[in-house]
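seq as requested:
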Amino acid sequence: MKPARRPWRPIGAGLALLVLGLAACGGFPEITEPVGTPLLPDLVAEPPVDLRVTRLDDGTLEARFSSTLVNIGEGDFALRASRETGDWAVTQEIWYSESGAELHESRADLAFAGDGHEHWHVRRVAGYSLVPLDGSGTPVENAPVRTDAKIGFCFYDHTHRMGFGDEDPRFDVHECGEEDATEVRMGLSPGWADVYGFNLPGQSVDITDLPDGSYRIWAEADAEGWFEESNKENNTTWIDFELTTDGENRFARVTEVGPEP
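struct tokens:
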């Protein structure tokens, strides 16, 4: 059984759609009347890699892993956010095949730092959770779930992962904004991936008191259903692993890998 998630649904009619016919403020690209058909993104999580067990100085044991989000859709996964005080207003850009775009309001929120990069992140744009498996390799129903410590993604064109899309990146890490920023825009082009290595803060689940056994780490893109995509059925994948102990050392060995983009 995969982790429960909130189904995607359009935001209410009063909030669903903003179409602007003039230049946006600051560094935001101009939004003009849309022409053609919408080019939606398709945000997919790759199965976690580089799984390992790490013991911290205070004795805490962590299962650490690298995580990746990929856009396999026709359109950019692009968000813009602005604020006057402490609260961010977030919108998703939906670009059209011939020209122009629409802005759709989102319930997403931003958080600062969290991985040593000192910039803004979209909270929980991807989520990771650890559950036990039974003897048949099936997740145990109603078992306690352990979630990752990651604060969020500042996503940008990190790696050209797929065989389509522009060869050169169009979204840069510097667009994620410094702490005093009042405008932020970040995105992931079609065919591009954003990668967070296992050595970054938050790329972990606490397993200090977890007994030896079989477990699964779920990876899910847009678990909260905050964004519009062309396909919501491919957002979830996983890895299964065996947790063992040898003296004072603990080990995690991957046994099965879920769907890849």
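The chain has a mean pLDDT of 87.
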